[in-house]
Amino acid sequence: MSSSTQDELRRTQQYLAEVIDECVFVERQRELMERRLTSQVSNQKAALHDAFSALEYMCRYAYLMECAVLPSVLASLPSASSLRRDLLQVRADLDARLEQLTKNTERRLEGSALLLPPLADMPPNRQATKEGSPPLMSPLSPIAGAEAMHSLFQRKVDLLDALTRTVLKLDTVQLSATSENAELQALRARMDELSRLVEANAATPALGCPAIAPAGSQDWAKVEEAKLSTPSLSSPSAVRFAQARTLAYEKTTQTLNNELALLHENYAALSRASAAEMDRLKQRSAEMQRKHDDRVAECDAVLGRLSLELEQLIHENAQLKHRLRSILGTEG
After folding, report:
1. Coiled-coil intervals in this record (predicted)?
2. Over the stretch 57-82, which tens digit does the pLDDT of each residue have?
3. DSSP character for 133?
């Protein structure tokens, strides 16, 4: 295999390694983005559900108050009174708005009569006198009752406005989720493209790779030029990908710095522990050396004493031999 072919093979392997690294990076970014978006969507859904439920219960509470107050007020007003007509007109307007709201949100709430029931067939005092309970509003003060009902209707209008804003917020969240989903799809498409490229390069024999044609250097230059001139490198998604990659590198660098600081702290702690252990070992070694020296000195003393006793025994033995010879010589 010629040197140019080896160089082309080496460059191809390096390019494949870079592509694989990019695939791994894109996959990790996709997983992180999916987790983040899933968490955000869950939190927003929970918050919006709580707000919507609160508004719905407030509307129900206002409806109950209306059922308790409105019959007494209507009974206390003359049939031709302008206040009565205003109350009924406001009631009809609220009915229409609630019907439009339930139609636009595609959510059926058991009918609009649950929150704002019609009053056409309701007797004036049926709700007020139900189960023998007296009216909450006195018929002797029709002006005060009308003002209270106007305040109550105004409160209900505010609540319905808040409910409408909540629905708009839900639509905004849905659009945002759709946009982020499109970004995820773009990242997934980019990853699939890189995966196909890796599989294609892995399935192609090394010597039969288009990047290693007879005119190797020229073909490789063309491949590099085509790779640099790919439209995806100048697209907004590629820019976002580069920004995300830079951010990931920064986070990785920060994480590595934190790990390095932790390792430095661990190394300092280990150094202190090692120094303390070394001092302890030195003290123990010195103590063992002292004990060894004491034992050596004791052994030397015992050996000296044994040597003196042996010399004394030898001297006594010599005297005994001399005395024994003298006795044998005298007897002979």
Report:
1. 271-323
2. 677 667 767 766 777 777 777 877 88
3. P
